[in-house]
Amino acid sequence: MTHLALVIILGKSAETLARVINKFRPEMICYLMYDEGLPIMHELLCLIAERPAIDRKVVVTDYQDLLACYEAAERCLEATRKEGFGLKNTVVDLSGGVVPSMIAGMVAAGAPWGYRFHVLKDPSKWGSGPYPLYRREEDAYLHQKYNRQIFFAELKLAALLFNRAQFTGARLLLEDLFPRVEAPEQFFVKALAAIARGYEAWDFFAYARAREEMAKGVAALDWYHAIQPERWQPGEGEEATTVLTVFARGVKENIKFLSTLTTEGQSEDRSFRLRVIDLLAHAEHRLAVGAYADALTRLYRATGLVIRQGRSKEPPAGSEEDRG
After folding, report:
1. What is the pLDDT of residue 94?
2. Could you read off the pLDDT of 129-188 as tens digits, one per residue?
């Protein structure tokens, strides 16, 4: 038994998963599973050469729900950290993944932290499966080109992170996805990554850099629109505008606001009001998504701006206005 934690998606044949466990002989296993995986669990325990000292299970109630899978995967990784296993002592195995949302959720939860991923496939079934694989020293690793289902699942997760104001996570996920897709989707992912990078800069109050990155991203998005117009057209019975159209319009409005915010030569009072409005709007959005610590940070910063502005308006001590 080695000092190693193994995180496993329980969903495929017990024989494949037993090979993974017997190969690593981990001290701890954390299973990401759903209710239908319970029969596989009983079969798996009979095939394991040596049971781990620590055993944890995280059950996904709705394995088709990407957010539920992502949050459950985070709980798996947190369980390994609580037991004292760091990045170097943890392996995330995807061999049992048969549901795209579970694979995408696990990748999204582990990739930003730098976790090691592993996939083992039965040689007799080589060339089949939901994603292409290749052999290397008895192991099978994920090919650069993901299955389209996983591609769209990861895009949905990036959108989820973006909408929850987790711009760094969305950017990292999109940048990781970029080399694994082909044109024209590459241009689309690159555009979204630039926009996420811009919002991330805005989050750190780097207004000029945020405006530049968002402008690059939305220009690339417009170019993608020109070469893939069908992706922007609503289907039968859908609203007149698509999600992409509304998204691009919103980004352009924010670029206009940032341009106003960073315009040189405007009055000090106007610049002050715009920055306070920006901070309060960001705080309100953070409260809406439950990011209370982030909301408080922006409220404190807005309060600090108001206090400094008030002090700058006070007459200097000892002046006639002060004495009067």
Report:
1. 84
2. 333 333 333 333 333 333 566 677 778 888 888 887 788 888 888 888 888 777 777 888
**Distance from C-alpha of 248 to C-alpha of 252, rounded to nearest angstrom:** 6
Look at residue 324 in the predicted model and tell me its pLDDT. 46
Please name the residue that has the structure tokens 């993944």. 97
How far is C-alpha 153 from the geometric centre of its chain's CA atoms? 11
Q: What's the per-residue H, E or C state across the chain?
A: CEEEEEEEEECCCHHHHHHHHHHHCEEEEEEEECHHHHHHHHHHHHHCCCCCCEEEEEECCCCCCHHHHHHHHHHHHHHHHHCCCCHHHEEEECCCCCCHHHHHHHHHHHHHHCCEEEECCCHHHCCCCCCCEEEECCEEEECCCCCHHHHHHHHHHHHHHHHCCCHHHHHHHHHHHHHHCCCCHHHHHHHHHHHHHHHHHHHCCCHHHHHHHHHHHHHHHHHHHHHCHHHHCCCCCCCCCCHHHHHHHHHHHHHHHHHHHCCCCCCHHHHHHHHHHHHHHHHHHHHHCCCHHHHHHHHHHHHHHHHHHHHHHCCCCCCHHHHC
| C-beta atoms surrounding 303 within 10 Å | 12
Distance CA 272, CA 10 (A): 54
Nearest CA to 290 out of 199, 163, 170 is that of 163
